[in-house]
Specification:
The chain is of the alpha+beta class. It is built from 21 helices and 24 strands. The chain is elongated, with a radius of gyration of 37 Å.
Length: 786
């Protein structure tokens, strides 16, 4: 194979591919730097060292966009290349036909690898050995230097991909076999090498099917006929009826889906949902039936583990992932699995990596069930905090000093209480001899203000209200070199709780998502708050309290998230991106039950898919947490729902669900019927989106350049609206101090240029590849059924 160098450099020089085929990293544009995979949250910007080439040849799904002709000015075997950006294709011409194609074709007639031209012989494997030469691509001949017999003459139609046969009107033509009395005459006549017919693609149905799209099976109808005592077969291509686009389902094959998309003329942007509308696995919870006030704080589902066997029981997985259980507290997990949680203590963290970065949130300390505004006049939903950064060593020093200050304050408080008790005793003995208190004194003591207004509140909470605290959050523990002992210790957990596992959708993202498929650490002092939220894309989460203090949790089932969203809108805070702390009375008045519980050291909290939750530290403690995505229908449905809601709200989905769905389909055998149908429908909608977009671009004359993905290359997001951009990338270049390439979605690309001028459309997966994945993704038999 040869590399058309001027596709990239504009120079008429020739290079061959290295061993192993073309490598994008070695064939980058000469005037630009190769690309490299982007990092997380890059806003769709592609650095200039990425190996994607903006001058890559167009991918036309089976069409031969580049045709070669012998170059007199080049060395033997070299071919002239086509400039991709010229916007023209070189047609087949007489000089393009290989000088030895006919000779090579007929030299195979005496073997079983080509046409057998002698009468009475069968035609065997007529396609496999002549397809290259007949399609205009030169082939290597082992015996080119040996004497060749004179070329044999064939009818003009025979140089196409045809099968000689007699027609009804006795005229030879495509797919028709000549009469027996004509064969001998044809075999012994000679003529110069024929010209390649220009209308082959139009006349030959086999070539039309190859050039028009992905490789498909050609269905041919054979009709046996008897004419003048001679039996013959009349062959015709059978055209299948296309399925209407609106009637496509997961029962259709990928070829039928692609065919339907070609026939459908969609002028506007294709906007169908990836969700299967006829299937929902959410539990049926009615909010119309009033719940008694005493039942608005239901008991939290809890499991007490006594042995390692209990932790690895399948019953635990079923209980945690049950859609009816919003949250599960697993007590005694660390003890039953013998987890060494001391590896995550503040002392161990400082010894391991003292200068590691810590994000700090400065907050106002308040009681867990209250959230006062800045003036302290009324309770509200917004929960404000400021952001800064420090190191593990510095925050550890703050955490320790805060503990020492608390001990000192507690000691002083005890001394004050003893002094007050002594004063009360002395005043009581003195008041026995004095007159009773006046009515003015009684009236003053009854006023609901000042110290008397909070007389029933413990003195420790009185002193903590309004105090400024610092919360160390989002400490990244993803580096396996720096945190090897800590990460290895977590491998003792059951498979469905681990950071990585085969049935965890987040393990099939293909790149790192900090805090989701990696471990994050939280260092807390009393009052540190994690505001209310649902996990990214409604994924499940695992949280282990390292201790020594406790944490208090609040949780609400996913069913009520829209009601909470309404409260956020009412108080002027964004539900998805804002910081809010629910007022419990507002939830109770709206008939929303709230789980409230204490997480002690060594306890694991499993947050089920979509659960709304908020957390406050009771004491000084550290926590570790990460997300998991169990492959079940409830998790997948909620993740895809939030994916589309984020797109509607112009919020980035941290988990690229379309990218993940295709990766899961390639690597995992799904046994659950509902999960299979949801994923299959998502793949179906993805193909429809891609093919309709392709048809629209092709109809407008826009070229599509194929550029395959690199290993561990991250998913791409639009630089403008943060929506996931799968497969079809609209790329522009930015000229700054360092030249970069920026990815856009179709809408944002057309907003810059309606005709996509200056935009290069890159395709990362061939249609045949996606079709193969779609067709091979089938429901696997359940292990119990074997």
């Amino acid at each position: 194979m040869y590399h058309p160098a001027e596709l990239y450099s504009g120079r008429k020089t020739w290079h061959t591919y290295p061993d192993g085929g073309p490598n994008r990293g070695q064939w980058a544009p000469l005037n630009t730097r190769p690309w490299s995979p982007t990092q997380r949250c890059n806003g769709g910007r592609i650095p200039s060292d990425h190996p994607i080439s903006l001058s890559s040849p167009p991918y036309n799904r089976g069409e031969r966009a580049v045709h070669y002709a012998p170059d007199k000015g080049s060395s033997k075997g070299h071919r002239q290349a086509l400039h991709v950006w010229d916007g023209k294709e070189q047609p087949f011409e007489a000089q393009n036909w290989h000088h030895n194609s006919v000779r090579s074709f007929h030299n195979r007639a005496g073997t079983n690898n080509g046409y057998l031209t002698r009468p009475g012989q069968r035609y065997i494997n007529w396609d496999s050995n002549v397809s290259n030469s007949l399609h205009g691509s030169p082939r290597l001949h082992r015996n080119n230097r040996e004497p060749q017999p004179p070329p044999e003459r064939w009818a003009p139609s025979d140089f196409r991909r045809t099968f000689p046969c007699r027609m009804i009107n006795d005229r030879a033509g495509p797919w028709k076999r000549p009469a027996s009395h004509q064969r001998q005459a044809q075999m012994h006549q000679h003529s110069p090498p024929p010209q390649h017919p220009s209308s082959t693609r139009d006349e030959c149905p086999a070539k039309r099917s190859r050039d028009s799209g992905p490789d498909q099976e050609l269905k041919v109808l054979l009709v046996k006929m008897k004419i003048d005592g001679t039996h013959a077969f009349n062959m015709a291509e059978v055209e299948e009826q296309k399925v209407p686009l609106c009637q496509l389902s997961i029962q259709n094959t990928a070829a039928e889906v692609v065919s339907a998309c070609k026939g459908a003329k969609v002028k506007e942007k294709f906007m169908e949902s990836y969700l299967l509308p006829s299937l929902s696995v959410k539990p049926n919870i009615s909010i119309q039936i009033p719940i008694p006030r005493e039942k608005l704080n239901p008991p939290t589902p809890s499991i007490y583990l006594e042995s390692r066997r209990d932790a690895f029981s399948p019953v635990l997985l079923q209980f945690c992932t049950d859609p009816k259980n919003a949250v599960t507290v697993i007590r005694g997990l660390a003890g039953s699995l013998r987890l060494n949680l001391g590896l995550f203590s503040t002392k161990s963290l400082v010894e391991a990596n003292a200068e590691h970065a810590v994000e700090v949130r400065t907050q106002v300390q308040q009681p867990a069930d209250e959230n006062w505004d800045s003036r302290g006049s009324t309770q509200t939903w917004p929960c404000e905090s400021s952001r800064s950064h420090t190191t593990i060593a510095k925050y550890a020093q703050y955490q320790a000093s805060s503990f020492q200050e608390s001990l000192q304050e507690e000691k002083e408080s005890e001394n004050e209480e003893e002094e007050e008790e002594e004063q009360d005793d002395s005043s009581t003995s003195a008041s026995g001899k004095s007159s009773p208190p006046s009515t003015d004194t009684k009236a003053t003591s009854a006023l609901p203000s000042g110290k008397n207004a909070t007389a029933n509140t413990p003195s420790s909470e009185l002193k903590s209200v309004g105090k400024i605290i610092k919360f160390g959050t989002n400490i990244d523990l993803s580096d396996p070199k720096r945190w090897k002992p800590q990460l290895q210790e977590l491998l003792k957990l059951p498979a469905f709780m681990r950071v990585e596992s085969i049935n965890n959708m987040l393990s099939h993202v293909g790149h790192t998502i900090l805090g989701m498929n990696t471990v994050q650490l939280y260092m807390k002092v009393p009052g540190s708050r994690t505001p209310g939220h649902q996990e990214n894309n409604n994924f499940c989460s695992v949280n282990i309290n390292i201790g020594p203090g406790d944490c208090e949790w609040f949780a609400v089932h996913e069913h009520y998230w829209q009601a909470i969203n309404t409260f956020c809108e009412k108080h002027g805070v964004d539900y998805l991106t804002g910081s809010w702390w629910p007022v419990l009375e507002d939830l109770y008045s709206s008939n929303i039950p709230v789980y409230r519980f204490i997480q002690r050291p060594g306890d694991l909290v499993w947050i089920n898919a979509g659960t709304v939750h908020w957390v406050q530290a009771v004491g000084w403690c550290n926590n570790i947490a990460w997300n998991v995505g169990p492959l079940n229908s409830y998790q997948y449905q909620l993740a895809l729902e939030r994916y589309e809601w984020n797109e509607l709200k112009k919020v980035k989905s941290i988990v690229p669900m379309i990218h993940v769905s295709w990766n899961v389909a390639r690597t995992i055998k799904i046994t659950d019927h509902d999960t299979f149908k949801m994923i299959k429908h998502c793949l179906l909608q993805s193909i429809k989106h891609i093919q309709i977009l392709r048809e629209q671009l092709t109809a407008s004359g826009k070229k599509i350049c194929y550029q395959s993905r690199l290993k561990e290359e991250p998913a791409y997001y639009c630089n403008e609206c943060d929506v996931e951009v799968f497969n079809m990338l609209f790329v522009t270049s930015e000229h700054s101090t360092k030249k970069t390439y920026v990815v856009h979605c179709e809408d944002c690309a057309r907003a810059k240029s309606a005709s996509l001028t200056g935009v290069v459309v890159l395709e990362q997966y061939r249609t045949e590849e996606l079709m193969k994945t779609y067709d091979s993704f089938t429901l696997a038999p359940s292990p119990l059924s074997k």
